[in-house]
Amino acid sequence: xxxxxxxxxxxxxxxxxxxxxxxxxxxxxxxxxxxxxxxxxxxxxxxxxxxxxxxxxxxxxxxxxxxxxxxxxxxxxxxxxxxxxxxxxxxxxxxxxxxxxxxxxxxxxxxxxxxxxxxxxxxxxxxxxxxxxxxxxxxxxxxxxxxxxxxxxxxxxxxxxxxxxxxxxxxxxxxxxxxxxxxxxxxxxxxxxxxxxxxxxxxxxxxxxxxxxxxxxxxxxxxxxxxxxxxxxxxxxxxxxxxxxxxxxxxxxxxxxxxxxxxxxxxxxxxxxxxxxxxxxxxxxxxxxxxxxxxxxxxxxxxxxxxxxxxxxxxxxxxxxxxxxxxxxxxxxxxxxx
Length: 338
Hints:
This protein is an alpha+beta fold. The chain is built from 9 helices and 13 strands.
């Protein structure tokens, strides 16, 4: 009798273990199916699939159904990998360190009519400014000249200190510093340190003592740039009516590369770069159609506010640009398919 009971107990145990193993096998297969599906969806936009080994495969169960949980840390790793400085905001309230260095720089002299032997820009800005100058030339504006591009922190210090010394002849030192900061950016607050800003002038003004003057905006070259630079991703950065927001007086010669469609959005809505970044942060999502009929969605994400990355709106295949605008803060530009 005892042997029969033992046999029955062993048989029942084998059956229960088999059932459990079968269910566990199915759960594992379902889990890998979810991961494979997500791996196929998340790619870099260039046909290259994400490395599935970088997914941690965490799963969450709701109503007894296995549901996928997108690994937000993994997505932020990808944003970090693809980020640029395209929309980095630099002013007296958002400064760059002395050690900041932009992406690899390109000497634009040779391809762009210039007043110097070396003017450096980030490659993205160089490509855009090359198209800009070609368009101006096609419209009969052959007198535009590039004057200044990238400036390291050390050189900006020299310019600022020289301006302070100049104003010191008329004002006390503290006032001289304030006046100098309205004309020349304090070191660490200059967009030129990013390699995305370009000062331009006209061939006629280059023959004068200072080619970077207010009069430039009245020249044919200045007028053409004001009306057309946004088509190539550039904005006239310092408008007179925005002085209280930008902290800089009117500079009709200073153009900043922010890319398409951001330049058009700012120009059409008559807002400064500061106002634009604030609007994106406040709104969270902006949908915009450019003059070519291309539609974009521009949204702000941070590690503490990333719901949009978990929604159907986020599509890595259509990413145009990822710009870091703060620590773990990004402005994502994505094209919308029709």
